[in-house]
Automatic annotation (TrEMBL):
GO molecular function annotation: arylformamidase activity
Gene3D superfamilies: Putative cyclase
GO biological process: L-tryptophan catabolic process to kynurenine
Organism: Embleya scabrispora
Protein name: Cyclase
InterPro entries according to UniProt: KFase/CYL, KFase_sf
């Protein structure tokens, strides 16, 4: 079995629109922290210098959004009301785990321009790889945007899907759509420019808005999709962290294939 990592890191050293704050307590600082916590919460006195080398365990404190690094968007991220089921979109902790392990399909969007591609582009790609996504397939969009991760261009120069393209995949039975870009929609600047030119509200984040009427999940900020040797014939594991009441959860996404 071969496993290919498809995840981007949470890196406080790279550029982020919402900056990441990462505090590291060293093993020595962890010892002092543990001693203070035992005293405060349990009334236990313990001298940290009695520990081997005076050290205990390191500890990390991180401040970030659930949309930092590779993550899965839940239906509740797309809006407060759903046009299906009970009318209440599910949070990430409520999503069925079986959604996030299944057959993978990677589509090549690397020659697309900044903006959003539509149905014709996807159908042309289906024909090129001689495969049309089947129900419950996890579709991954290889845009090449991950090469700009950690820079401002990562948030402005990428390709997404328009609304009809998303609906095409959902009509085929796909429930999870992933991308190596910052968003499944076009970049913010591109969307606003097209909206101001046309006055058409349908260009305002249609890939996300589609999730208000049809339940599906997105995986955003994937990486390394170019390392997949074939466009299908592999499995994807992308289980999101179970955060109660959250609209997204971080994921360690990988492709699994037999050698």
């Amino acid at each position: 079995m071969r496993i290919i990592d498809l995840s981007s890191p949470v890196d406080a050293g790279g550029y982020e629109a919402d900056p990441v704050v990462h505090e590291v307590l060293t093993p020595r600082e962890g010892a002092l922290h543990m001693s203070a916590e035992m005293r405060e919460h349990f009334g236990i006195e313990f001298d940290p210098d009695e520990l081997p080398d005076g050290e205990f365990l390191s500890l990390d404190r991180i401040t970030l959004t659930t949309h930092t690094g590779t993550h899965v968007d839940a239906p509740s991220h797309y809006g407060s009301v759903a046009g299906y089921g009970t009318g209440v979109p599910r949070h990430i902790h409520e999503m069925p785990v079986e959604w996030f392990y299944g057959r993978g399909v990677v589509l090549d969007l690397t020659d697309a321009e900044v903006g959003a591609v539509g149905v014709a582009y996807l159908e042309k790609e289906f024909a090129r790889i001689a495969y049309t996504p089947a129900p419950n397939d996890i579709v991954l969009l290889h845009t090449g945007a991950d090469q700009r991760a950690g820079t401002p261009a990562y948030f402005t120069d990428f390709t997404g899907l328009d609304g009809p393209a998303v609906h095409l995949l959902l009509d085929l039975g796909v429930r999870v759509i992933g991308t190596d870009a910052f968003s499944l929609d076009a970049p913010f600047g591109n969307i606003i420019e097209r909206y101001r030119e046309t006055g058409d509200r349908s260009v305002l984040w249609p890939a996300h808005v589609a999730g208000r009427d049809r339940e599906y999940c997105q995986i955003e900020r994937l990486a390394n999709l170019g390392a997949l040797p074939e466009p299908f014939g592999f499995l994807v594991s992308c289980f999101p962290v179970k955060i109660t009441g959250a609209g997204a959860g971080w994921a360690r996404a990988v492709a699994i294939m037999e050698d």
